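Exercise 7. Predict the structure of Exo-alpha-sialidase from Nocardioides luti.
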Amino acid sequence: MEGTHVDTVLLIGTRKGLWIGRSDEARLDWEFTGPHFDMEEVYSCMVDTRGATPRLLAGASSSWLGPQVRISDDLGATWQETPNGAIRFPEGSGATLERVWQLAPGAEDGMVYAGTEPGAVFRSSDGGETFALEQALWDHPHRPDWQAGFGGQAFHTVLPHPSDPQSVTAALSTGGVYQTTDGGASWQPRNQGIRAEFLPEGQQYPEFGQCVHKITRHPSMPERLYLQNHGGVYRSDDEGGVWKSIADGLPADFGFPIVVHPHDPDTVFVFPINGGDRRYPPDAKAAVWRSRDAGETWQELSSGLPETFFVAVMRDAMWADGHASAGLYFGARNGAVWGSADEGETWRQLIADLPDVMCVRAAAV
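Solution. The predicted structure, encoded as C-alpha cells:
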C-alpha cells in the first residue's frame, strides 16, 4: 500500500509491543508495522484526531525503564519520549507507577486523561506530554477499602464528558464507578443498581466495591452510559445515577469490553464470555453481540469469525472507528485481530500470531 492515502489507523497494544495498521476507507487491505517498543507491555493507546495532524499516544512499560507515555505526530514513523515518562506520582505519595491502563482525550484541545495502576487518574493539558495527579481522587476516603482484582488495582476506564471539561467518569477495579462534576475537586461513587455478585446475599449492592470491567458513552448523548460488569451488563440514562440491567437476551452476562456505535447512541456491542474459570465464549464460538435498541434486544454477529475460539477479549481490546459505515475491531489473547467494515455484519482476520492483545484503538484520519 506504499503511496496510498491513509484513511484509517489501527493501534494494537500487546504484552510485547505495539503494532500499527493502516488502510484506506474501504478497510479491506491492511499494512502493519511493528513491534514498536519491542518487548514492552502496551496496556493503553490513543488516536487523537483533534489537531491538524493526528497524534498517537501509547502507554508502554519496560522492565528496565518502567512505564512511559510515548507520542508520535507522524502516524508512528517516529516516536518521542515524554519528560520523566509523563506520568509519575508526586514525592510523598507513597506510590510508584506500575502501568498506564488508559489514555483518553478530554473535552478541551490538548486535554488528555490517564488511568493508572495503582488506582489513580492523571490529567494533561499539553496533549499528553506532562500529567498531574487528580489529588482529590487519590485522597478519597474510600481508597483504603479499594481492593485489587486479578488484573491489579487500577483506574482502567476514564470517560471525560465530551463537552463539559468539569465532568469526568472513571471506573476502578475493584472499586466501581466514580464521577466528578467540579473539575476534580470532589468525586462521588455512581454505582446504584450494579450488582457485586461475589459478595454475600444482602450485601450485593454496596455504595462502592463493584468489579466494573468497562464503561462507554456516546458523544451526542453523554448522559447515556453502558457498562460491562463482572457479571452483568447495564445502561444508565442519567450519567451513572442509576443503572438498569440490559443483560437479558445475551448468552452470558460476563465479559470485558463494551463499545457504543460512534454515530448511534442506541447501538452497543459486547463480547460475552463465560464467568468463573472458563474465560472463553459460550460454546467456544467467537461472536460479537449487538443491540440496536439500547440493550432491550440482542443479535449475534459471527459471520466470518472462528467456530472454535477458546480465548477471551480484554476490556480495552475492542473499538470502533469513526467512518460513516462504522468499522469494528477486536483483538484476542491468542494474538489475532479481527475487523468488520460493516458494523459487525461480517468479519475478517486482519493479522494473526501477535502477542497477547491488551488494547485496540482505531480512527478515521
